[in-house]
Write a structure and sequence with these properties.
alpha+beta; 502 residues; Heat Shock Protein 90; five-stranded mixed beta sheet; 7 strands; 16 helices; two-stranded antiparallel sheet
C-alpha cells in the first residue's frame, strides 16, 4: 500500500514538472516571436508563434494558445497563404472546443479573435457571403462574452466590413454608435480618436467621397463638443455666481467681501463671453475651411477624370504622326509599342468590372505549351523546367498565358547562362490556385519593388522598355479575380506569383 502511494506521489510530481516545463517553453517562444515581429522578421515570428501555440495548447492554457495561434494565422494571411491560415484557425478552434468540453464552460471571448481573423481574410478575398456569415458569428460571440473591449472592437470591425463592401450608410451608423457610447461617458478623446480612425481608413482606401463626408461629420461633431464644453463651463460659472449671490443675501455683514465676489464673477463672465465669441470666430473659420476642402476635392476628382480621358485617347492622337515615320527605327518602334501599351492599359482599366470567360484547361499541357513558346528566347545553358500536375482547372487560357509569357520572357532576359527558370502550378484550395515563375537571375532591387506594378512611376528611355508590362499583367490578374505579386522572401533571383480564384 505504501509503495502504491509513493508511486502515485512520484507520478504527480512528474506531471507538475512537465506542465511547468511546457508553460515555460510557451512563454519563451512567445517572447521570441514578439521580438521577431517587432524586427519585421515575419517568417521567424510565424514559426515561433506556432511553437508557442503548440506548447500552450499542450498545457491547456487556452487563452495564451488562442492568442499565439491567431497571431500565427495572421502572419500566414499577411503572405497570402490562406490555406495554411484557415487550417491553423480550425486547429485553434478545435483546441478551444476541447477546453470547453473539459472545463464545462463556454469560451466566447476566445472564439471571438478566431472568428475575427477569418472575417478579415474573407474581406480581403472579397467573399461577401462568407464575410457576412463570420460577422454574424462575431456579433454572437461579442454578445455572449459581455466584455466592453470586444463590443468596441466589434463596432470597428462592422464599420470596416460595411465600408469594404460599399455599404457606407451602415459603416457610418456603426461609427456613430461607437462615438455615441464615448460621448455618453464624456470620453471625448476616445470619440475624437474614432473619427480620426474613420478619416484614416477612408484615406488608406482612396475613397475621397467617404473621406469628405467623414471630415464634415467630424467637424460638426467637434464644433458641437466645443459648444457643450463651453456650455458646461458657463453652467459651472453660473452656478458659482448664483451661489455667491445667495451667500451675499445671507451675509449682509460682509458687504465688502460680497462686492469683491461679484466683481470677480463679472470678470469671469466677461472672459467666458470673450471665449464664446472667439469660439464663434473659430467655428466660422472651420466652416470656411471645410467648404474650401470640399471644393478642392471636387476639383481634384474632375482633374483625375480629365487625366484618364487624355490617357485613353493619347495613342489615337499619336498614331497618325507615327505612321509618317520610318517604322524600322528603334525609337519609332519603341513609341509604337508605348502607344499600344497605353491603349491596352486604358482598355483594361475601363473594363475591370467585366470578367473573362473561363474554360476547363489541362494544367500540364497548358504550362508546357506556354514554356515552349518562350524557349527560343532563353539563353544557352539556362534550364527551363515545368512542374504542373495533370489536372483540369477553370481559367481563361488566353489571358493567363499572356501574363505567364511576359513573366517567363522577363526571366529569360535576366537569367544568365547556367541559370534556372521554373514554371510551377500549386493548388491552394478548392477554388484557389497559383502559377509561380521563379528564376535565378539578378533579381529586383529593393528600391524598385514598391512601384513594380504601378504605371508611369518614372521617366524612362522608351528604347529600353516602357515599364508597362508588369502593370498590364497586374490589371489582367485583377480582372481574372486574382492578383500578381512578387515574393519578397525569395532572394536568389525573382519569383512572381499569379494567384487566381475560380
Amino acid at each position: 500500500m505504501k509503495r502504491v502511494i509513493s508511486l502515485l506521489f512520484l507520478m504527480a510530481i512528474c506531471h507538475l514538472c512537465l506542465t511547468a516545463g511546457a508553460q515555460e517553453r510557451g512563454n519563451d517562444f512567445e517572447k521570441q516571436a514578439r521580438a521577431s515581429l517587432s524586427q519585421k522578421d515575419y517568417i521567424r515570428a510565424r514559426y515561433l508563434f506556432l511553437q508557442a501555440y503548440n506548447a500552450f495548447a499542450a498545457n491547456e492554457q487556452y487563452a495564451q494558445a488562442t492568442e499565439c495561434g491567431v497571431q500565427a494565422a495572421a502572419l500566414y494571411h499577411r503572405e497570402n497563404y490562406y490555406n495554411e491560415a484557415f487550417d491553423l484557425l480550425y486547429s485553434v478552434e478545435r483546441t478551444i472546443i476541447g477546453g470547453e468540453q473539459k472545463t464545462g464552460k463556454e469560451m466566447p471571448a476566445l472564439r471571438y479573435p478566431v472568428t475575427r481573423e477569418r472575417l478579415r481574410m474573407y474581406i480581403k478575398l472579397r467573399k461577401t457571403a462568407s464575410a457576412k456569415e463570420q460577422l454574424s458569428k462575431l456579433e454572437g460571440w461579442a454578445k455572449a462574452a459581455k466584455v466592453d473591449s470586444l463590443s468596441t472592437n466589434l463596432l470597428y470591425t462592422q464599420a470596416n466590413y460595411y465600408y469594404t463592401f460599399g455599404m457606407n450608410a451602415q459603416g457610418d451608423q456603426a461609427f456613430k454608435h461607437l462615438v455615441e457610447q464615448y460621448a455618453q461617458q464624456a470620453d471625448y478623446d476616445k470619440a475624437e480618436a474614432c473619427y480620426q480612425e474613420l478619416i484614416g481608413m477612408s484615406r488608406r482606401s482612396g475613397n475621397t467621397s467617404m473621406m469628405a463626408r467623414a471630415y464634415s461629420n467630424y467637424m460638426a461633431w467637434h464644433d458641437s463638443i466645443a459648444n457643450i464644453k463651453a456650455q458646461q463651463a458657463y453652467n459651472a460659472l453660473k452656478a458659482q455666481y448664483d451661489s455667491s449671490l445667495q451667500t451675499i443675501g445671507e451675509k449682509d455683514d460682509a458687504l465688502a467681501a460680497r462686492r469683491y465676489t461679484i466683481v470677480g464673477l463679472c470678470i469671469l463672465a466677461a472672459i467666458l463671453a470673450g471665449a464664446l465669441v472667439l469660439g464663434g470666430i473659430v467655428l466660422l473659420r472651420f466652416i470656411a475651411l471645410n467648404r474650401k476642402q470640399q471644393k478642392s476635392i471636387r476639383t481634384l476628382n474632375e482633374h483625375l477624370t480629365l487625366k484618364t480621358q487624355f490617357i485613353s485617347h493619347i495613342s489615337a492622337q499619336m498614331q497618325p504622326t507615327l505612321d509618317t515615320l520610318d517604322a524600322n527605327l528603334p525609337a519609332v518602334q519603341a513609341l509604337q509599342a508605348f502607344t499600344a501599351h497605353i491603349e491596352e492599359l486604358s482598355a483594361l482599366e475601363d473594363t475591370l468590372g467585366e470578367p473573362y470567360e473561363l474554360e476547363e484547361t489541362n494544367v500540364a499541357t497548358f504550362c508546357e505549351r506556354v514554356a515552349d513558346e518562350v524557349r527560343s528566347q532563353v539563353q544557352e545553358g539556362v534550364a527551363l523546367t515545368v512542374n504542373a500536375p495533370k489536372l483540369n482547372v477553370r481559367i481563361n487560357a488566353e489571358h493567363v498565358s499572356k501574363v505567364l509569357r511576359h513573366l517567363l520572357l522577363n526571366a529569360a532576359k535576366h537569367t544568365p547562362a547556367e541559370g534556372k527558370i521554373w514554371l510551377d502550378f500549386k493548388k491552394r484550395g478548392a477554388h484557389t490556385h497559383q502559377f509561380v515563375v521563379t528564376d535565378t537571375g539578378c533579381g529586383i532591387v529593393e528600391d524598385s519593388r514598391a512601384n513594380l506594378f504601378k504605371p508611369f512611376n518614372a521617366v524612362r528611355d522608351l528604347t529600353q522598355g516602357d515599364g508597362l508590362g508588369l502593370p498590364i499583367c497586374s490589371l489582367e490578374a485583377t480582372k481574372m479575380n486574382g492578383s500578381l505579386t512578387l515574393d519578397p522572401s525569395y532572394n536568389k533571383g525573382a519569383r512572381f506569383i499569379l494567384e487566381l480564384h475560380a
